[in-house]
Amino acid sequence: MFNYIRNFFFNAKEYIITIILLLVSLVVISQNDKSEIKRFKTISFAAVAFLKSSLSSASDFLKDDEELQNQKKINAKLMLEVNNLRNYKKENEELKTLLNFKKSIPKDLIPAEIVSKKITMPRWNFIINSGKNDGVKEGMPVLTETGLVGIVYSCSGSFSVVRTLRNVDLNIAVTNQRSLVNGVLNWNGKNLIIKNIPSTYDMELGDRIVTSDFSTLIPPSIPVGLIVKKETDQSGLVSNVIVSTFADLSRAQNVFVYPFIRSKEIDSLEFNLMIKRDDK
């Protein structure tokens, strides 16, 4: 044990002597009142204080930067969560509206989702994920919770092609819900138009256009749109009425097929009149 202590002091004697001298120097300096010593002590204390302050500021800066990054991370997560909640809210509201709409219709509607939109001007066609296996047939109207979208043009077991209102090959019998003026609605590549309405007929801006009861293929009173413009020809005898659809075809995702069947023979004849075959 004695040898260990002796070896320790022998190996560390330089460090021990340095520490003792440093302590003695500090004691002497602290007890000395000379102006040079006071100036040295002041400078030393200031240097130590500045160094301590700098180290503290650097530490606080690094700490604040780390906290800022953590806060940004938390904010990013919250932003994603809020956005997801908004999407869920929107989907929930849309589904509620669809369900409420379905409850208001006596017929059983066939729900479907648009899986593809084939938009080739001036023909808009949708593909939906309901077909013959679900009870879908050619000529059945397709609609959203706000209004008519189009007509089933063809269908397979699980999918159907919908010829929309924005298709030059589709003609729909419609009526003015207020004045009961009838006409045929058709897409001209730019607008939905009811053509050649006598100028004396009561057709005003803002009037609601619905499907006509003259059609045996489409049930009456399905909302189509509003009259937004009325153009009278140079003779002043007839007018073209422009209609804006209730259903937003550009954003439509969830739809219903309306299984409306009256007479298969009459429906077949009317279907051929309504839809121009473009596969010839």
Written account of the structure:
This protein has 280 residues and is an alpha+beta fold. The chain has a domain at 110-274: Rod shape-determining protein MreC, domain 2 (Thrombin, subunit H). It contains 4 helices and 12 strands. It has helices at 2-11, 13-31, 35-103, 264-274, and strands spanning 110-120, 123-128, 141-143, 148-155, 160-167, 171-176, 182-187, 192-198, 208-211, 223-232, 238-245, 254-257. The strands form 2 sheets. The protein has a 6-stranded antiparallel β-barrel with strand order 1-2-5-4-3-12. Strands 6-7-8-11-10-9 form a 6-stranded antiparallel beta barrel. A hairpin with a 4-residue loop joins strand 3 and strand 4 (148-155). The radius of gyration is 42 Å and the shape is elongated. The protein starts with a helix and ends in a 6-residue tail after the last helix. The mean pLDDT is 78.
CATH class of the domain at 110-274: Mainly Beta
Q: Could you estimate the helical fraction of the residues in percent? A: 25-40%
In this structure, how is the largest beta sheet organized?
6 strands, antiparallel, barrel
Helix-strand makeup class: alpha+beta
Radius of gyration: 42 Å
Cross-sheet strand order for the largest sheet: 1-2-5-4-3-12
Q: Report the average pLDDT across residues.
A: 78
**CATH topology grouping of the domain at 110-274:** Thrombin, subunit H
Order of helices and strands: HHHEEEEEEEEEEEEH
Task: Tally the helices.
Answer: 4
Question: Which CATH architecture of the domain at 110-274 is right?
Answer: Beta Barrel
